[in-house]
Structures are given as structure tokens and as C-alpha cells.
Request: fold
Amino acid sequence: MRIDFEHRQAAHCESGVTRNLLYAASGGKITEPLAFGIGAGLFFAYIPFIKVNKGPAIAFRTFPGYIFKRTCKSLNIPVISKKFSSKEKAQAYLDARLEEGTPVGCQVGVYYLPYFPREYRFHFNAHNLVVYGREDDTYLVSDPIMEGTNTMSSYELERVRFAKGALAPNGHIYYPKQNVQITDDRLREAIKGGIKKNVFNMLYIPGSFAGVSGIRTTGEKIKKWRDKLGLEKAGLYLAQMVRMQEEIGTGGGGFRYIYAAFLQEADVYLPGNQLTRISGIFTKAGDMWRTAAVHAAGIYKGRIGSQDDFNVMGDYLLEIAALEKAAFETLKKIKWQ
Amino acid sequence: MKKDEVPQDLSSLGKITKEVCYATDSDGKYTTTLSSGWDVKITALDTAWDDIAKRIAAAKQQVLEGKASPVLFFMEYRLMDIGILAGYTGFWQWQVKRHLKPEVFRTLSNNKLQKYAGAFNITVEDLKTMTVHED
Reply:
């Protein structure tokens, strides 16, 4: 059976799945940027003790699963979310939902995802897609980063739903419980709540590894990478950072452009709060991240690589940290009209 | 980023799907547009794969010199570490570490070899002979 479901390509997998699952339920109100912003998706974290492909983990977005959960909660939409230890039960549960006509979100690992090109397959386990039907042994899959829909056999789907390693999905499945009417008032409150939460995450998480202070710490560390790691490894670390910042699923500029788009859309619901003007600061931040990426590419391509080049690289991040700090402080001070 | 500045450098993903980017139009209003890739991130990905290729080659050399079992080679080939491999096979990490030794690997039952073959998505024969089929 095939559930009536509109696949819409998105920049980011989780906000895309959230949008696709909520779009019809919300009467077409929830767009990807709104889901990303209400879910307080923007972030920065530098986590040296978690290794991704032998380098430090650097994240430009919030924790996996957070956007969907937060968006639904702010909009008063009840959510069902389940993990499984048994593969058989996970499949039976999925089949039962499809049988009753409910499209469901699934967390999956990317490594054995059959329609991904080999170059993009890493052991990254926080990818999200929607399953919206089954015909014999073939599942119908809507992966928001793909232009079209895809299919997977039951074995292929089981393998990615039970991928192993960090953030193992354990068959994680989630969906909004029912269609709820979302009023514009509710949406306005959700937008304010999302901005408030994002202000907290970027400005007030203690320690120097998360938010704006995380960007600053990373900038300082980059200046020392050349001496500490050697040119080759330092280049690898920079390449890794650029991939987390720009690779599929970010919308470009380390998610800063999606956030800028969110503020523009938010301005329509909450006019008179300067949100469009503040959106421009995030566009600038996104542009600066990309300028920094071009400089980083010079280093990992081996075109440049002096200590001065690393200093310039580090300074880019310090500059971005200052800009984003100012942007979030402006958001914090808004007296909502 | 302005819409007409969104890069269109063909990446290996771009051959299969274009990706959505958020960019501003001439009025400064956000819209989505498709990109087939960006040279800066294509080379970032190439850099990562060059490093992986080196690790795979080093593992292969160790197996050929009898210093490691083919499990090490396929572990690198599949971009896994001991934790991930333990997850896929159901072995403990200390068991996987033992199985990296050629002399221990040679004594493994077919049942255990099958678990590794399953994790690597290859046959037991390929595992023993370190044979790779591109997929």
C-alpha cells in the first residue's frame, strides 16, 4: 500500500522530515525553515573526545532528534517515538503504522543506504527519512535530501535502521500522533520559544565547547593545529570541519542561511520586531563561514599552509564568534510587539 | 549568499541528486535553489578519502606481512573502528581485537567468520582471501 504523502526535497534531513510530516497536518504552515527555527536547530559544538573519522567532532546544528521533538512540543502536537531491541518487532511496528495509513519518520545510518553514492557513505547514524508505503518486500522511502523518492528492500531498510556505532538508531521510529489545528497564535508562541531556546544554546551553555564560545575556542585551537598536529593532519581536521559545515544537509554556511530564512519567515508572523534586519546578520555569518571554508580549502589542497595562514583561519572564526554573539544578543533583547 | 552565486561544480552526489541551498533573491528575500556541488567541499571530501585510502593500503600491507588478519583490512575498508565492528558482529571489543591477530583468525569457526562477512557485506571466501568487489 502507498500512503498519500507529498515528498518535498529539503536542505537538512531532520527539519525536512519534520516539515514533510507536519506540512499536511499544519494546513501547509510548517516550512523547513520554520521547523528548523522553532526546533532551535542552530548550534555550534566542538567535541574533541568524540572522534568522527579520526578527527574531532564539530557540529553546526543541535543534537539529533531535538528539532522534531521540540517543534512538535512547541506546537502542542503529541508525538509517538519508539526504539526497539528486536528487529522483528521494529519491522512489525512499522508495517502496522503503514497499514493504518500513517507515514513515519525513521532514524537511519548512512553507511549502508543503497541510493547514496559511495563517496558520501560514512558511519553517520543520525540521518532521517520517511517511510510512506510498502509493496511486497519493497518499502517506499522519502529521503528529504534527495530530489525524488526511493525504495528499499526489507533487508536494506532493516540494516540501516539497525546501523551500529555512535548514535545507533536502534530502529528509532517517530510520528505526530494526530492532525492538530495549528493556530497562528500558537505558531507565534512557538517561534518566540524557538528563538529563546536558541539564544540560550548559543550564549549560555557553560564551558567553552558549545555555542559562540565554542566557535571562539575552535578558532584559538586552529592557530595551534599546525605545530601540534603537523600540516597534513591539520589539513584533514580543517577538511572535516568544512564537510560538517557545508556538506549535504546543511543548506550552506553551516545552517546559518536556513536560520536567516527562518527569521524572515518569522517576521511575517511577528512584524515590527526587526527580525528581517537580524536575518541579514545571519546571512553575513553564513557568508563568513563560507569565506573561511575557501581559505581552509587552500590549506587542505596544499596551496597555502604557513603559520600565518593558520592564524588567518583562526581569526575568521573569532570574527564569526563576535558577529553571532551580537546577533543572538540582539535576538535576546527583543521586546515582542 | 545570493541565488546567482550558488556554486554549480559537479560533485559525485550532483550526478545523482542536486542539493537544496538557501539563498537570497534580488530583493534580499530567501528562497531555495539547487546546487550540483561546490569545489571547496568536493576537495574536502577528496581529502578525507585520500586519507582513508592510505589507511586501507597500510592495513593491506600489514595483512600481507602476516602482522594482522584480514579483519583489519576490511575494518578499514568499511571505515569502521573496533566499536562499530563489535556492534555489527555482536562480539565484544576485546574479542574483535584478538581476531585482528592472524594466528587467532585462522582458528575462527565458520560461524564466527560468517558474522564478520555479514558485517562487511562480503562472503567468507572474500574475507579469507582479502578480495574486494566494488559496490
